[in-house]
Amino acid sequence: MTEEELHAIVHLPKVELHTHFEGMAPPAFIRGLAKEKKVDLSRIFRPDGSYDYRDFWHFLEVYEAATSVLKSPEDFARLCTAVLEESAANGVVYQETFLSPDFCGGGDVAAWKEYLHAIREAATVAERDLGITLRGVITCIRHFGSDQARDTACCAAETAGDFITGFGMGGDEKKGRQRDFSWAFDCAREAGLQLTTHAGEWNGPSEVREAVEDLGVERIGHGVNAHTDPALLEMLAERGVTLEVCPGSNVFLGVFPSLDQHPIAKLRKAGVPVTISTDDPPFFHTTMRKEYEALAKTFRWGEEDFRDLNRIAIGAAFCDEATRSAIAKRLEQP
Ligand code: ADE
Ligand code: ZN
């Protein structure tokens, strides 16, 4: 691949479906807030300033510690501006992000509405100034349990609309079962929200099957461990269940030992709708440009492969049809 070909790939307009809002916070942003609020967070940073954690489960603890200094709607509005500047600089034109009312007012509906209002205002300014469109997917957190997920679903149902368009679940996949959260997902569906859940990042293919069959989700966060089950791959392809694949995250956290051993090419070949995202980019030392560059080099994918991946992503986006066609048009720019 020539330098020009790689340059064209890295600079393509991009659709990103799987990001955690707080997980996009640059470490310097969190350090700055900690200083302002006189909270000692030195334990979660390495001497070079990056986030410090040992493995995925420790990552979840560090994530929650970092999030603890985001205390007001204004803090979340500042975060929104910072993350959309970074995403727009990476060529992202449409992004979905997981928002957790648990971190924004502790799951209280009235408080959540204030946080959401502030986030939305910042997103509107970024859309006008930077040309990036954001949509929110409200996310319950699996290791916080199904009771808390009900509160989260109530927040989601109360604020479902043109900005909050989806409902999902993140957190520790080793805790509980997908079906424990049926009430929350049913509530969200009834409120008109589209559904996704993290599955098959740490557990095997049966987790992905349960997510589809027990919760009725249209997309799966990660889902990469489906690759060992041919019947499941067939089912995902047939039903058009889209995987939000985060290759850099998977390699950084050790789900796969290296990108060349990542099953993303195999999943595409099986006809499963696959998309590319960064998950929690500063935590995993990645960006959308870095993801595209690494994938292009490792799998020898050309510009048309990435254009296809983006078409799949906007096709699976949780947004209204006017937004979808406007973004799809931007993706086709030469
Ligand atoms: N929360 C933030 N990042 C996550 C991930 N990759 N998996 C599950 N929960 C998360
Ligand atoms: Zn995730």
What does this structure look like?
The chain is α/β, with parallel strands linked by helices and 334 residues long. The chain has a single domain, classed as Metal-dependent hydrolases (TIM Barrel, Alpha-Beta Barrel). Helix content is 49%, strand content 14%. It contains 14 helices and eight strands. The chain has helices at residues 3-10, 27-36, 56-67, 73-89, 109-130, 146-159, 182-190, 205-215, 230-239, 247-252, 264-269, 288-299, 303-316, 321-331; strands at residues 14-20, 92-99, 133-141, 164-170, 194-199, 219-222, 242-245, 274-276. It has an eight-stranded parallel sheet with strand order 1-2-3-4-5-6-7-8, with helices on both faces. β3 (133-141), α6 (146-159) and β4 form a beta-alpha-beta unit. α6 packs parallel to α7. The protein is globular, with a radius of gyration of 19 Å. The chain starts with a helix and ends with a helix. The mean pLDDT is 97. Residues 20, 23, 63, 170-171, 198, 201, 249, 279-280 line the site of adenine.
